[in-house]
């Protein structure tokens, strides 16, 4: 999902990020010392990014009418515990309200300009509406007193049933008239890319070894090159490698393996 070529909208990533965090915390308590130590280092780095993005990711899930605040209400107690989980859900709700108020001002200014342009047009019939000025003023005051915000109305509506074929952008396109401010927020937040680069590009080194000029390496040769690279780095950092066995390579490919290892050594040098 993270490295797909079509890069889905941001609303589908929140639960995956939460599942990763829960898994890392679970591995921290592993009886295997290596796994526990590795997980602790991963959690430390993960949390630095988590603290920056989990609020916006939760906001994106809120903009999915299938989830709204239900996903944070489900995952945050599992991550933080019951008490702190409720506090984090409240923070997400407050963030949504803050963003909504900012967009409300922006959309209100945009509407005022549109209305002003209509009023200045040649089709304006002011004289016919003079007698209704007091009615519109009264109706506006009475409506403001009891009217709920778009955000509240949206959250109070029943969640849509889960569907893998659901298109959140089409839903907001159809419901933009009903929720004009929320649709503006959805347009800006849902198209934020989750990553600037595909994840396999960050973690895979095979693309640097099997290039257009060197594309006929056997799997055993590729394994030898990557292991040699790893051992060289370990030696450079002063780490000892115990119990490293011999790599099983066909006798016919000995020369190719040696040449590949020499190339790797020369490259590292």
From TrEMBL:
Write down the InterPro entries for this protein, in alphabetical order. hAT-like_transposase_RNase-H (IPR025525), HATC_C_dom (IPR008906), RNaseH-like_sf (IPR012337)
SUPFAM superfamilies from the UniProt entry: Ribonuclease H-like
Q: Which residues form the hAT-like transposase RNase-H fold domain?
A: 3-103
Q: Where is the HAT C-terminal dimerisation domain?
A: 150-232
The molecular function terms of the Gene Ontology recorded here are: DNA binding; protein dimerization activity
UniProt cross-references to PANTHER family, sorted A to Z? BED FINGER-RELATED, ZINC FINGER BED DOMAIN-CONTAINING PROTEIN RICESLEEPER 2-LIKE ISOFORM X1
What's the protein name?
Transposase
């Amino acid at each position: 999902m993270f490295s797909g070529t079509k890069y889905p909208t941001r609303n589908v990533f929140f639960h995956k990020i939460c599942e990763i965090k829960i898994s890392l915390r679970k591995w921290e308590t592993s009886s295997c010392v290596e796994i526990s130590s590795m997980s602790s280092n991963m959690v430390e780095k993960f949390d630095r990014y988590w603290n920056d993005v989990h609020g916006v990711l939760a906001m994106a899930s809120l903009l999915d009418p299938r989830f709204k605040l239900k996903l944070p209400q489900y995952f945050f107690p599992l991550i933080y515990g019951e008490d702190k989980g409720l506090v984090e859900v409240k923070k997400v709700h407050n963030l949504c309200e803050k963003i909504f108020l900012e967009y409300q001002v922006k959309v209100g200014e945009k509407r005022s300009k549109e209305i002003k342009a209509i009023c200045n047009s040649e089709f304006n019939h002011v004289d016919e509406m003079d007698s209704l000025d007091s009615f519109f003023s009264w109706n506006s005051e009475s409506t403001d007193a009891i009217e709920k915000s778009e955000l509240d109305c949206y959250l109070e509506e029943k969640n849509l049933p889960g569907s893998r074929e659901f298109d959140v952008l089409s839903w907001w396109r159809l419901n933009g008239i009903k929720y004009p401010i929320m649709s503006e927020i959805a347009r800006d937040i849902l198209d934020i890319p989750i990553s600037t680069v595909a994840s396999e590009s960050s973690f895979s080194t095979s693309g640097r070894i099997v290039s257009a000029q060197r594309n006929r390496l056997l799997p055993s040769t590729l394994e030898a090159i990557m292991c040699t690279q790893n051992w060289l780095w370990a030696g450079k950092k002063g780490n000892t490698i115990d119990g490293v066995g011999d790599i099983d390579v066909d006798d016919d490919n000995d020369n190719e393996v040696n040449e590949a290892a020499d190339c790797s050594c020369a490259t590292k040098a």
